[in-house]
Amino acid sequence: MFAFDREGVYQAVNPVAQKIVAGHPQTFEVAFLNAQGKRRNYECAFVPIVVDAGGVGVFALVKDVTDRHQAQENQRILQRSLESSENAVVVVDVRESHMPVVFVNSAFTAITGYSREEVIGAPVKQLTGPEKLIQQADMAMYKAKQQGRDTYVVYSEDLDSKLSKRVELRNELQEAIKTGQLFLNYQPQVDRDGQLCGLEALVRWKHPKKGFISPADFIPVAEETGQIAHLGKWVITQACKDARRLLEMGLLKGRMAVNLSPLQFHRPGFLTVLRSILEDTGLAPEHLELELTEGILMKDSEGAIDILNVLNGMGVATAIDDFGTGFSSFSYLKDLPVDNIKIDRSFVDNVTTNEKDAAVCKGVITLAREMGLNVVAEGVETQEQFCYLKSHGCESFQGYYFARPMLFEDLVQWIGKTG
Ligand code: C2E
Ligand code: CA
Ligand code: CA
To answer: According to the model, what pLDDT value does residue 3 have?
Structure first.
């Protein structure tokens, strides 16, 4: 195609004209500014009229194809943007009764597993039912959300089966909450002399057919589905009731600690619910402690600090659980109105054998002491770990070495025995 001004057109057309005069038909496109100064595209067809082997004239057909060009360009732009979309896109020709697929982008082929050859021209109905497709896309999205932001997940059958298990667990958990399959265990915390100085409530689920299901498996499901609000409320209430019973028996030393999930903590009305539980169970706030993970405090940290200050004012203590596993730096501790830090089990595990883990434990203990915080070492399983941590200034300990989590009745006996 040529694109010239009028002089240029003449120069371009001239050699073409010579070929036409020589008896050869010519077609070509030119673009030039018309009388109104607008750029237009023209398709030209010149057919020589030949009489007795001599050219006597020319049929000239000139067509303005500017609109057709523009439409093609628009289509190219649209196609490029659909192609680069992360969402699966299917374009169907609805003018045809069988609605053939005329375009699918790369995301569509990646997500569905269909190849372009399989689907282009095929009736759209032949694709797996759109409901199923949406369901599968939904599962992938659900999984992607679970993994945090800025990611994508491609649907696979494996994902399907994992998520079906989760859906099953969700339904069963609903039933478990209603029918009382949940109960609490209590694990003692001890001081440097091995004397009881606190308790942690840990939820347990005894499924009628599957047996015990670990909170590490069902708490995340409850968090995703929102069931944690109800479940968490039940846990705090039960723990407060049992703490009250222990107090009445003269057996409670220190506080009753309850684990809080981020969703519970950030839920509007959390403080109101907590106040009403304390009131209903008659437990003084001085006997309650809430364990929060670093994740809770990183998300909306200003809002979190406000809530921590209110809790502080109420007399409820707070602890940072699994310390060292999150993203936080030590420096953020200075801004947090918390009372305790629980060093994660993963550091305590190798505290006597791995220098780096020992360094983390020592660092946390020193720092916490300077900030006036109490440190609890979690998951202490051996005497060596206990002695090592104690020699470096740790104040409180929790782990199988002292006691496993147990039922309320067993706890009463344990306290009776250990004094
Ligand atoms: P966590 O808060 O870090 O709880 C400590 C976990 O370590 C408990 O597991 C406990 O049984 C276990 N543990 C204690 N001492 C030792 C030890 O010496 N060695 C070893 N290997 N493990 C020890 P559990 O009860 O299975 O709980 C797992 C997690 O589930 C908890 O970790 C907590 O994050 C969550 N969880 C438990 N109960 C609740 C609850 O009521 N609400 C919420 N939101 N989360 C809970
Ligand atoms: Ca905990
Ligand atoms: Ca922990």
So the answer is: 47
d(CA 365, CA 337): 17
Q: How many CB atoms lie within 10 A of CB 134?
A: 10
CA 118 to each of CA 92, 94, 111, 126, 130: distance values in angstroms, whole numbers, following the listed order: 14, 19, 14, 10, 17
Structure tokens at 138: 């939904």
Average pLDDT, the chain: 87
Q: Which CATH number fits domain 87-146: 3.40.50.1820, 3.30.450.20, 3.20.20.100, 3.40.50.2300?
A: 3.30.450.20
Instruction: Report the residue among 187, 189, 202 best suited for mutation to probe ligand 1: largest number of ligand atoms under 8 A from its CB.
Output: 202
Q: State residue 282 phi and psi, 5-degree precision.
A: 75, 20
Q: Check if the beta carbon of residue 318 is closer than 8 Å to that of residue 339.
A: yes
pLDDT at 53 over 50: yes
Strands of 314-389, DSSP E: 317-323, 340-343, 374-377
Reading the block at residue 28, the tokens are 């070509």
Query: What residues pack around ion ligand 3 (CB closer than 5 A)?
Result: 321-322, 378
Residues of CATH 3.30.450.20 domain(s) within the chain?
6-67, 87-146
Give, in degrees to the nearest 5, the angle at Cα 171 between 220 and 186.
Answer: 50
For 228-251, write each residue's pLDDT tens digit.
Answer: 999 999 999 999 999 999 999 999
